[in-house]
Amino acid sequence: MNIKLLLLLFLAALSTSTAAANDSSQNFSTKTTESVLLLDQTTVAQTKNLTQKFFSAQKHPSNPVMQRTEKWEGVGPYLWGNRLMQDEKTGELRMWYIAYDYTGNFYRWGYATSKDAIHWTKPDLGVEQYGGAPAKNLLPLGAHPEKGTRSIARDPRPETPSERRYLGVRFTYDGEFISFSPDGIHWAEHPLSPSWFVPSDIIHVMWDERRNCFTAYFKMWEVSGTHAQTNSPHGKPFLAYMSTYDMTNNNNGTTSFGGPMTHFRTNGAAEVRRTNFVLRAKNQGKDDGGGTSLSGAWSAKRVQAWAQSDDGIHWKNEQLILRADKQDPPTANIQFMHVIQHGGYYLGFITMHDEAGHFRTQQTWSGDGLHWNRPWREPWLDIGTGDAFDRSMITGPVDPIFWEKEMWFAYGGFPIRHDTQATDWISAIGIATLRMDGFAAWEAGAESGELVTQPFQCNGDRLFINADARNGSITIEVLDEKGKPIKGFEPKNCEEITTDTLAKEGNGWVQWKKEKDLRRLKGKQVRLRFTLKNAKLYSFRVADEKTMKLPVPRATTK
Fold first, then answer.
1. In terms of domains, do 295 and 345 share one?
2. Buried-most residue among 45, 100, 262, 347 (CB within 10 A)?
3. Checking phi first, is residue 465 left (phi over 0); if not, alpha (psi -120 to 50) or beta?
């Protein structure tokens, strides 16, 4: 069995799992404070005469919104594996960011706050030192300070001790160090650290609302090639997943490797064992900036894995979830994936990287957080042009900030490629903007089209649709769970939508001639049938009187 066949078997298993995960027979749930996206069969039962279109984010004209001001920030701030949250009491935006320093090869982390996401304050925290003096907004580094930056999540469970309200996970070459904090600023390492040995150096931890536990998305190395065996002229196919590795190029057409190899287990914690092996080497690609080759007889590519934990200390069910495939360039790999839960989906923002050395962000999504769809391979957020601060690499983004009409995403930007030899560059942080829920839309032309949702429980009494029907119209019909029209909610009784519903407050709230709202259907299982003509449909929301107007800005608190 050759290495290509091994990878094909993996992709076949992933495809089978994806089909099962997206079984359209499963109902979805709604929240009065959150819209429902219409990306795939997770929420969409069927479409007719509609085309799905995807949209890239734009750059805010104020970019960059955060630049280097502190000595400890090295070559400057950026975002990768970091978080943005909102203070529940004050509404203040809180951002944790990373800064790289060539001196000592340090990855430090800092903290900043803002009211509007454009103007950021770096508060004087007094919790860490740099150069023997207090370092303003530098956060605690702990053991192995050169790997001081953490990915964090806030535990929302009332029974969680206050000193463990925030979880921090960070990579070191000895393993993952776990720390806890009452406020996201003062951190204490857990005495069992390092207690996890599977992830590589880029991790995203989050509180998974559906699973009611912590989950982590993290980079691993997929090392593949041909085992150099002295008793076989053809060698033996080799495939391994590792958090890190040492490598020596020999003079006999082989490369020696050594490092912790992960063995995934079903319904349990992965096993990690130190392993040495030798692979055939021929026509190897150049160093991609990470000390590896992305092409040749052997390759080491970054892939994405997942794990879960009830306490943030003990992790289990590690599994590979996403890798580059045949629709990507041959040397493509996925450096990082930031995941949010929004609109009935897990939304993934993946950092794509190949031998060209550029980082770009693509969009992916999942119904369960494990099986991912990537029908669109264009950049969701592309590198800048000319002398832009982000002209060569994009990293992040972090959690979105919701406004009335837009979603904003803070991200990191670099003027250099990943394989640069220069050391005089400066990174910074910018803001990407997107129409509210504007990741994708279903579009109809002059011939009318239809979209029918999966059944869901009507938890509110007011229906809002996010759509652009300035040049056409949209009508909405309410069906019962089996698809039978409900009297009073037929399309002939619906007041047509003929505007961009985000253009003016009050647009987009759906009414029928004899039914001003959905109050009669509250608590029941229903479907919606949208009929579009020369219009785009992005999302919908079933609200109640209290949530018709949501506060802005708003962001996750966990």
1. yes
2. 262
3. beta
